[in-house]
Amino acid sequence: MIKTKMNELLGIKYPIIQAGMGPFSNNKLCIAAANAGALGLMSTSGICSGTRDYQKEIYQHWAKTGNADPNAAMEDILRQALDQACEGTKASGGVFGLNVMVSGPMIEDATKLINTAIAYREEHPEVKDRFKVIFTSAGDPLPWGDKIKGAGFKWLHVIPSVKGALRCQRAGVDMIVASGHEGGFHTSWEPVHSMVLLPAVVDALAGSGILVAGAGGFCDGKSLAAALTLGAVGIQMGTRFLATQESDFAPLWKEGVVAAGDRGTLVARGFVGPARWIKTETSKVHQKNTLELTPELYLDSPGPVTEGALKLMDYERAAINAVYAGDKEKAMYAGGECAQRVNDMPKVKDMLETIMQEAVNTIKNLPSVLS
Ligand SMILES: Cc1cc2nc3c(=O)[nH]c(=O)nc-3n(C[C@H](O)[C@H](O)[C@H](O)COP(=O)(O)O)c2cc1C
Hints:
Structural class: alpha/beta
Strand content: 5-15%
Radius of gyration: 19 Å
Bound molecules: flavin mononucleotide
Oligomer: single chain
Shape: globular
Number of strands: 11
CATH superfamily of the largest domain: Aldolase class I
Strand order of the largest sheet: 1-9-8-6-5-4-3-2
Number of helices: 15
CATH topology of the largest domain: TIM Barrel
CATH class of the largest domain: Alpha Beta
Distance between the termini: 26 Å
């Protein structure tokens, strides 16, 4: 058995978070992860106005997998998906939460989503031990503490730097996820990978009482053991959870992750900045276009939203629609560097049990290197 302060804080069996992977649906995956003993996260950006207006396939798929009426208001869609998650975790007592993006343009929707989550939990006191977490991302944590913690949620926030971690400390976050540049889809403008970022964040927060988990590149027991060795209390996994039986992602996407090989990803424009994609003919063209139209992306700078950037976003939108349409030739799908180490599509429960057993074995073998 491995137990860390993360198990205690969240009341979960394994020190593992199933990453929010918006704007795509994680509705069923969240239930499976929570039932199997990890923290499950539903992503919510798929029902925000930007997705509803411009990425209809993603929006429709989110509503469908959330057992929600796509014509309802955003808050009601969230309530319906929460009903499903509460019902789905009732027997196991699995713990879950919401991933809410709080970047500038999304603040209005983020506020509505968080208010809805707070109201839902108040109206359903019987789910308080299961619906426990708000996980904010992609924005400033400072404005959110009173609201989220005041309502009794555990509050997690993801950051790509020590600077971001110190801001989380000021904000009063319960637990930080330090997300290295290996990670799938949204990556930071200034790349630092997990091997450097995670111990740097752990050291910067030493003595603060704030827990730190690693994200980006973690996909098995060996990498979980490595995260614990670097001072983390656990890990968050996106790409590994994406390629599971219960994952809501399209079959083409899941198969694309499993098929990725050595040096199987690249970074190119995504709608919220740099994004890591599985290497395909379509994503290679996208990378070339990114270099031509928004070279500042490779110079660690957001730069202005130019016509070139808008063209890239159109290309991306069409390529993601092709995934939903099952058009392999035109499809483009996101995934992390660890896709090259993800070679199967197991059930979530089996995957977690295998990871935990491998982590225990790895840790047990470590003393053998001491002379
Ligand atoms: C398809 C996809 C979509 C993602 N969308 C989000 C998101 O909406 N919000 C977020 O905080 N992180 C997002 N991420 C990052 C994950 O939450 C997680 O930190 C990352 O996948 C960890 O790295 P890994 O892919 O190596 O496991 C996304 C990742 C993937 C693969």
